[in-house]
Write a structure and sequence with these properties.
Number of helices: 11
Distance between the termini: 44 Å
Bound molecules: 2-acetamido-2-deoxy-beta-D-glucopyranose
CATH architecture: Alpha-Beta Barrel
Shape: globular
Pfam families: Glyco_hydro_17 (PF00332)
Strand order of the largest sheet: 1-2-3-4-5-8-11-12
Structural class: alpha/beta
Family: Belongs to the glycosyl hydrolase 17 family.
Oligomer: single chain
CATH class: Alpha Beta
Strand content: 5-15%
Order of helices and strands: HEHEHEHHEHEEEHEHHEEHEHE
Number of domains: 1
Radius of gyration: 20 Å
Protein name: glucan endo-1,3-beta-D-glucosidase
Keywords: Glycosidase, Hydrolase, Signal
InterPro entries: GH, Glyco_hydro_17, Glyco_hydro_17_plant
CATH topology: TIM Barrel
Helix content: 25-40%
């Protein structure tokens, strides 16, 4: 019976020791704004340990793309905001695609290129003006190289592009951005590419912890809310945010555009004024989220669409600027041990010494990984990664 099968597996998932974990279709963001991360070869088994089959990068780090060759893991590679104006030139775009995408195919399964991150909410009109032309140049390069049927071109937005998101049925884009968003949606629709959104219920909670229910943002049992616009019932904020995006897309005539959550997560540590940032809450958010993804159900407004979610992030990133939370979104610490107990990871970081520092210290015959000392993070190609990752501020 399906139900008991599920609960058995779930038990294993949360106590931990099996490999691989059954979670399906999980994506993970692999940010590298740090000087102490393990080398990419050592990250491959960690990605597998959390059951992720999709990885999103903020650049096209050749070391990562090589390390993941022939692993079956799918990649979204990124082109940082500082490259947008350059990429509006088709020759530059073609050169970039050749050396950063084509060179790794088909061994590394690059399926998408995210051009820019949260560009429209920087309110920088000259940057925003480059976005669609850059996406078009990159797409044209893919067409020229006959890669357009296997690699899509998109861009990731912040939920702050929404003017209205609550109740979800009233979801609408910021009025001043509509002129910019519509042609991008048209491009995505014509090229069969997904709409990417970064969504952090943490920010809503942090901004107003007295009004926002912690259970509602952490996917814990709660009464939830009913959307008076359509009578749909919501018991978590992430689903409400996703459906607000669907409503905003529908209001511009793009009902069928697939939505992917390119980032969501919860920090395990924050500054004193960052209410809610704790290992307990991060564990609840990400643990409950992984459970939901595994149930293969959609949101109330799109019950039949798979959740397509990239958790943020693989590692704590010690060189990110901003509040303490920014450096503490990782599921893993840089040494490869779990940042908090989700149950899945002690296995992956054993160095032959069963007293590993994870929350669980399983004795295992599983993969034994020796995590090397801090890697030299300069990757020697277009150095895209620094300063481009969003601060996800609303
Ligand atoms: C961008 O502009 C919008 C609308 O005017 C405003 O609400 C928002 O705070 C601005 N964001 C930033 C980062 O300046
Ligand atoms: C395992 O780690 C512990 C604590 O770091 C250390 O005291 C012990 O000597 C290690 N054992 C082996 C076999 O390396
Ligand atoms: C990284 O490697 C480069 C080239 O080998 C070297 O010049 C640089 O000093 C190294 N940086 C660090 C932080 O070790």
């Amino acid at each position: 019976m399906a139900d008991s099968h599920f609960s058995v597996n779930l038990g294993l998932f949360f106590t931990g020791f099996l490999f691989p974990v059954l979670v399906s279709s999980v994506g993970i963001n692999y940010g590298q704004i740090a000087n102490n991360l393990p080398s990419p070869e050592h990250v491959v088994p960690l990605v597998k340990a959390i059951g992720a089959n999709r990885v999103k990068l903020y650049d096209a780090d050749p070391k990562v793309l090589k390390a993941f060759a022939n692993t079956g893991v799918e990649f979204i590679v990124g082109l940082g905001n500082e490259y947008l104006s350059k990429m509006t030139d088709p020759a530059n775009a073609q050169a970039w695609v050749k050396s950063n995408v084509q060179a790794y195919l088909p061994a590394t399964k690059i399926t998408s290129i995210a051009v820019g991150n949260e560009v429209l909410t920087f309110n920088d009109t000259s940057l925003s003006g480059c976005l669609l032309p850059a996406m078009q140049s990159v797409h044209t390069a893919l067409v020229n190289l006959k890669l357009d049927s296997q690699v899509t071109v998109t861009t990731a937005h912040s939920v702050a592009i929404l003017q209205s998101s609550y109740p979800p049925s009233t979801g609408a884009f910021r009025q001043d951005l509509k002129g910019c968003i519509s042609p991008i949606l048209d491009f995505l629709s014509k090229t069969c590419s997904p709409f990417l959104i970064n969504a952090y219920p943490f920010f809503a909670y942090k901004a107003d912890p007295k009004q926002v229910s912690l259970d509602f943002v952490l996917f814990q049992p709660n009464a939830g809310i009913v959307d008076p616009g359509n009578n749909l019932h919501y018991d978590n904020m992430l689903f409400a945010q996703i459906d607000a995006v669907y409503a905003a897309l529908a209001s511009l005539g793009y009902k069928k555009l697939p939505v992917q959550i390119s980032e969501t997560g919860w920090p395990s540590k924050g500054d004193e004024n960052e209410v809610g940032a704790s290992p307990e809450n991060a564990k609840k958010y990400n643990g409950n989220l992984l459970k939901l993804i595994n149930q293969k159900k959609g949101t109330p407004a799109r019950p039949n669409s798979d959740l397509n979610i990239f958790v943020f992030a693989m590692f704590n990133e010690n060189m990110k600027p901003g509040p303490t939370s920014e450096r503490n979104y990782g599921l893993f610490k840089p040494d490869g041990t779990p940042a908090y107990g989700l149950g899945f990871s002690g296995i992956a970081v054993s160095s032959g010494n069963s007293t590993s520092s994870g929350s669980s210290s399983p004795k295992t015959d599983g993969p034994s990984i020796y995590l090397s000392p801090p890697a030299n993070s300069s990757s020697g190609y277009l150095a895209i990664s620094s300063s481009t990752v969003s601060f996800r501020s609303h």
